[in-house]
Structure formats: structure tokens, C-alpha cells
Amino acid sequence: MSIAIPRRRVIPGFGLTMGFTLLYLGLVFLIPVGAFLLYTTTMSWEQFWNAVTHRQVVASYKLSFGASLIGATINLVFGALVAWVLVRYRFPGKRIVDALVDLPFALPTAVAGIALVTLYATTGWVGQYLEIFGIRVAYTQLGVVVALTYIGLPFVVRTVQPVLEDLEAELEEASASLGADRLTTVRRVILPALLPALLTGYALAFARALGEYGSVVFISGNLPFRTEITPLLIVARAEQYDYHGAAAIGTVMLVAAFLMLLLINGLQWWTSRRHG
Amino acid sequence: MSTSSTVIETNDTLAKRWRRATEEPAWLRLVLIGIALTFLALFLVLPLTVVLYGAFERGLSVWYDAIRDPDAMASIRLTLLIVVIVVPLNTLFGIAAAWAIAKFEFRGKPFLISLIDMPFAISPVVVGLIFVILFGSQGWLGPWLSSHDLRIIFAVPGIVIVIAFGTLPFIARELIPLMQQQGKEEEEASLTLGANGWKTFWHVTLPNIKWGLIYGIILCNARAMGEFGAVAVVSGRIRGETNTMPLHIEVLYNEYMFTAAFAVSSLLTALALVTIAIKSAVEWYDEHRQRLAAA
């Protein structure tokens, strides 16, 4: 005890760093968000309810939610596969492939947006071949799914990779020596160990997709009731100076984001408890 | 000599046969690698290629002219001005937050960490909207601002603040786990030996977090230059004045000036590639050091 007390006082700067952290967080983040939420309360309940349940808005929820869910699911499957291949197998160019996984995180969304629409337009490198099979991606809901898959790609890979690297070989060896075939080992030993990380990555990809704007608006074509995502409607309302309408829809998105964050924190806590 | 080599050989073949139980057959491995690489080629390599192809399709001089266009140059200058303001502020914040969180114990620490992560979870469009409602003509402070002839929305200050908000977590997120992992023994030793706080930070802490900090700054810089949704809401898209590079790309694309749009995009793409190259260099350096430390 006599050692513990002076130890705590050795390092200086708590007041300064904590003070600056809270000041900056307050000015840039907390006060503006607080003012935004306060603004929503200046609306009557009816006004708010009408804004968030407008037919066009409800159609956008369905698209945003559905396409984000599909995109995150695609990323769950392929992300797990990519993480597996990167951790377990050797092949030439592996380090470059590994680095490229972060590209959607580093490439500006507007650049991704015009690249995707150029690829998937009916004259594009990919679109012209899909056209033969009657599949249209650009300016359809499928295009929204493609953009949201792109944007969520790094998350599952990057949450599963470290867990897979730390997975003890002994578990798989024990399973194999007890007579399980490879599929049984993957299903009964490896998958349960990866489950928290998989779910965390899934939730992160979904949350990111839900709020995404830049990469979607080019490829979606923004047709009312068909390919309008919720963030687009917020921009449209704000551009028409309908601040109340924009704020109401924005509040719904903000609440959805907070709920996702709570869920993700819970999942991360579960992951770290498992792999302490 | 010969006996020992046979022993090793049998061990080797034994190990190989035994390892097969926890490995997939070669054909399956190839198939899985094939599927993964096809997926990544389709989603990562093709978009990258189409940007670079679109930018240079009509030759280097067309690319150069597109970059030298006055509106394009104005957007580049504005984007650089913004990162010069935002990145140092967020660097300072990241270091301060990481120092407070990693070196001290206090109540509510997990809550503070979640709070710092939060701006990343908020849709960029909502970030823009938050500041329109705070500073816009019909927002909380709008009347006061216009009576004092100040403009934040549809002007540079608005763009600066939404980008600061959007990129707030990046450096802190890199530094907090790094500094937590490094503990505080080295700093305590330095301070006990008589160095003051600043000296300890410069000579002990900073060298330890250097690479994480560099990656954090580069990532924050790339994200700040590429921010789109939030800026789209607050900028007003005044040509030559409030168009950042991503907004200028959008304007060019909507005017069917595809080559010019891809030319400006190619600059941001190069920046993104440099960012991920630095990330993997930092990771490689870390692994290398850990391997050296283990050996």
C-alpha cells in the first residue's frame, strides 16, 4: 500500500490530458449532438411521427435495412473465408492481398461510388456480361447491395483474423485424434471459437452499411420508393430546408447507430472474455 | 550421422501424415484460395483498376489538364487546407486521450472509450445535419451568426468541423490499445530518474508509439481528404470555394466529365494505397520486432 500510493502520483499530466480530451470531445461531439437531440424535441410528437413514417421514408428504411443485412451476410461468409485463407494457407502475393483488404476503409466513398457504377453499368466491364443473363446491377436495389458489400468488406476479415491466429492448434489436434473428421472439427471446434468475432464483424459491417452514403448514391440512381436509401432522404430534406423532417429521420438513424454500438460493445466484451 | 538423418526423416514423414488430420486436402485448399481471391478481385481489384484506367485512358496530358483545371486545383487546395487544420487537432486529441486512458485509472473509463468510438458509428450524413441544425440559417445559432455576418454552413468552417467530427476517433483508436499494452513502467522509470513529464513523453513514450501514431495520422489524413457524406450536407457545393476533392469528383461525374472525375479520383486513390502500404509496413515492423525480441 505504501508503494501503491506514490506510484500513482509519479506520472503527471492527468489533469491536462483529461481536460483537453473532455473539452475537445465536448466542443466537437457532445454539445453538437446534444443540440441536435434538443432540436428534435422542439417538434410536436405528431410532426415527428409523420416525418419518420412518411411512405417514402418507410420504403427507404426497408431498403437500407434489407440491403445492409444482405451485404453484411455476404461479408460474413466471404469475410470468414478470406480470413481463413489469409491465416491458414500460403500463396504468392499473400501480403499484398492482406493489405488490400483495408482498401474500402481507406478509399474515399465517392471514388468507390463512381468506380462501382462504372463497372456495373450495362456498358461496364462487369455489367455487360451480367446483362447477357438479364441481371442489372446499376440503378437497381442490387446495386445498393453491391455498394454496401464493398463498404463492409474489411470488418469481418479484420475481426476474425486475430482470433483465428490465436486459436490453439491443440484443440483441433485433440478433435482429430478423437476421431472427428475435418468438417466436424471445423463445425464443432473452430466455428464456436470464432462465433463472437464473426458476430462482431457482422454487426460492424451492418452498422457501417446502414449509415453509408457516398458509395451508394452513384450506383443506386436514387429512384423514389425503389432505390432511395435513408441517408439520401436526410440529404434531400436538408437541401429543401426541411430541417425538422431531416432531424426526425436523423434521430431515427442516430438511435439505430447507438443501439448497434451497444450491441457491438456487448459482442466485443463477449469475445474478450472468451479469449482473455 | 546416417541414423540421425533417418530419424529426422521418419519424424518428418510422420509429422506430415499426422498433420493431415488438421489440414484440408490440397485440392480443397486451392478451391478455397480461388474463391477468396475471386471475391477480392471482384470487389477490391476491379474498382481500383477501373479508377486508374479511367484516369489514364486518354493519356497523361489529358490527366494532367484535368488536374490543372482551376476548379480542380481549388478543390485540392481547399482539401489540403482542411487537413492542415483537422489532422493536427485530432492528433493532439488522440495523444491526450490515449495518455489519460492508458496511464491512469479512473471511473467510467470504458464509457469514455466507447464515447470516443461513437463518431465513427454515426452516419456521415447525420454528422453534417447535426452542424446544419446548430449553425444553419434556420438552426440554433443561425440568426445570431447572420446578424454578426458570420458564415459557418456553406463555408469552410462548417466543412472543417464536420471533418474533425468524422475523423475524431482514428488516431485515438490506434494509440489507446498500443499505450495500454505498453504499460507505464518505462515512464515511471524515466520520471523516477528525474526527467520531467514533457521530457519523458518526448524521449520515452513517443519513440514507443511512433509507428502507431504515424499510421493513425496517415489514416486520419486519408479519411479527412475523402470525407463525402458529411461535407455534402454542409458545403453548399460552391464551385472553386466550398467544393472539396470528393465533392468536385461528384460534380464532374454528374456533368459526364468521366475522365476528369477519374483523374481527380486517381489522386485520392494513390493516397489510399499509400495509407494501406504504410499500415502493412507498420505491422511487418511490429512482427519483425516481436520475432527479434522472442529470439
UniProtKB/TrEMBL annotation, chain A:
Domain of life of the native organism: Bacteria
Transmembrane segments: 21-45, 65-87, 99-121, 133-157, 189-210, 243-264
InterPro entries assigned: CysT_permease, MetI-like, MetI-like_sf, Sulph_transpt2
SUPFAM superfamilies cross-referenced by the UniProt entry: MetI-like
Gene Ontology CC entries for this record: plasma membrane
Keyword terms, alphabetized: Membrane, Sulfate transport, Transmembrane, Transmembrane helix, Transport
Topology versus the membrane: Multi-pass membrane protein
Record localization: Cell membrane
Family label: Belongs to the binding-protein-dependent transport system permease family. CysTW subfamily.
Summary of subunit composition and partner proteins: The complex is composed of two ATP-binding proteins (CysA), two transmembrane proteins (CysT and CysW) and a solute-binding protein (CysP).
Chain's role: Part of the ABC transporter complex CysAWTP (TC 3.A.1.6.1) involved in sulfate/thiosulfate import. Probably responsible for the translocation of the substrate across the membrane.
Protein known as: Sulfate transport system permease protein CysT
Native source organism of the sequence: Billgrantia endophytica
From TrEMBL, chain B:
Pfam families: BPD_transp_1
Bilayer-crossing regions: 26-56, 76-99, 111-140, 152-172, 213-236, 256-282
Membrane topology: Multi-pass membrane protein
InterPro entries: CysW_permease (IPR011866), MetI-like (IPR000515), MetI-like_sf (IPR035906), Sulph_transpt2 (IPR005667)
UniProt KW Lipid metabolism keyword: no
Keywords assigned: Cell inner membrane, Cell membrane, Membrane, Sulfate transport, Transmembrane, Transmembrane helix, Transport
Record-level GO cellular component terms: plasma membrane
Gene Ontology molecular function: ABC-type sulfate transporter activity
Subcellular location: Cell inner membrane
Superkingdom of this protein's organism: Bacteria
NCBIfam families linked to this entry: 3a0106s02 (TIGR00969), permease_CysW (TIGR02140)
Function statement: Part of the ABC transporter complex CysAWTP (TC 3.A.1.6.1) involved in sulfate/thiosulfate import. Probably responsible for the translocation of the substrate across the membrane.
Protein's recorded name: Sulfate transport system permease protein CysW
Species: Billgrantia endophytica
